[in-house]
Amino acid sequence: MLLKRVFQGFVIVSLLVTMVLSESLAQAQEPELLSANVSTFATGLVYPRGLEFGSDGSLYVAEAGPGGNIEPRRTCPGGYASPLMPYQIGMTGQVSKISPTGERTMVVAGLPAARDKSGDVIGPNDVAFLGDTLYVLSAGGGCSQGMPNTPTAALLDDDYEPDGGPYELSAVDGITLDGKIRRVLAMPANEGHITLTALTFHDGAFYISSLGEVPIQQGTSKIYKVTLDGQVEVFAEGLTAVLGLAFDSQGQLYALEASTVDNNLPVPGAGRVVRVGAKGALEPVATGLSFPGGLTFGPDGQLYVSNFAYGGHPSKGEILRIEVTAAPATLPTSGGVIDPLPGLLLSLFVGTGLIGVGWRLRGKSSLPVFNWLKPQQRGTSK
């Protein structure tokens, strides 16, 4: 068993992100035009997020869904209630399969989804394959969303730190499929109070991105390179609101930026994908994305991105295909192995919240992750 792609939020979700993505924001602004190397691969998805190609050549996509029409009462022990209530809940999350020709079929339906009072939806966030078995990652459910019978986390020893260790600012844990957990590495406190958003493994090292300042400030996101013995260095800086990382077959790193405009919220049309050079230079590969959420490389060597993943009308969800080799050359640039852990499921933590886990299979080293959830959602099975 080898390590594969990382996908977000699993046992509990504790990202320190305070953004509220409302439908009115998307409707109030017209997105900028997509760059010429971007085409539409699939439409009609409802808040598509994490995505992964299967061995059959089809693209599998987690859709958070629209939520529901049921407003639950407070159901958590001890009177706990999320400040994001009231939720509108329903079993509307799903996973779709899109064939190489763009035909869409349903794979899994009836997964928990909850729409909070701001209109943001919590539900299925990612998919991944272990062999030919599909795993779906759901951040919906739990009694704090009014779904006590569909929990998304298990309380361990009166704490949500699965490895039993103390609070860490951020960490990566290894989890075997028989449930054994051990700490692999922890980001040092001297890096400051950062919000990690994505993790990928390449050529014997981890690459981890940070969200940056909230409200969004241009150039405040970084990508860290972390060796297996815990040495940390800044690999690239000057990025903005990074949500995903992926390496191509040539060993080049790509980063997904949710929005590149100084603003309280992500701005439609302001998302982009950049290629990170050896010295940290940032080369735009695709621009004009609106609320992008996840990215992955396809068997054709091109990038696929989920668009309108967390903002805009539910009907706008789509998958975009980016011709990497046809990246616009006139866009400006800005500064900015052997599997060492066989048999481990890796997990990325921020605070006490697990935001990423995954495997590496078939020699793939790209492990992108998407998560755009709020700190009040920590302990979603609580």
What does this structure look like?
The chain has one helix at residues 23-28; strands spanning 4-8, 38-45, 48-53, 59-63, 88-98, 104-115, 121-122, 124-130, 133-138, 170-175, 181-186, 196-202, 205-210, 221-227, 232-239, 242-247, 253-257, 271-276, 282-289, 295-297, 303-307, 317-322, 345-350, 353-360. The protein is mostly beta strands. It has a single domain, classed as Neuraminidase (6 Propeller). The chain has a 5-stranded antiparallel β-sheet, with no helix packed on it. It is globular and about 55 Å long. The two termini are 32 Å apart. The model is unreliable at 1-28, 157-161, 163-167, 329-345 and 347-382 (pLDDT under 50).
Architecture blueprint of SSEs:
Elements: E1 4-8, H1 23-28, E2 38-45, E3 48-53, E4 59-63, E5 88-98, E6 104-115, E7 121-122, E8 124-130, E9 133-138, E10 170-175, E11 181-186, E12 196-202, E13 205-210, E14 221-227, E15 232-239, E16 242-247, E17 253-257, E18 271-276, E19 282-289, E20 295-297, E21 303-307, E22 317-322, E23 345-350, E24 353-360
Antiparallel strand pairs: 1-24, 2-22, 3-4, 4-5, 5-6, 6-7, 8-9, 10-11, 10-23, 12-13, 13-14, 14-15, 16-17, 17-18, 18-19, 20-21, 21-22, 23-24
In short:
With 382 residues, the chain is mainly β.
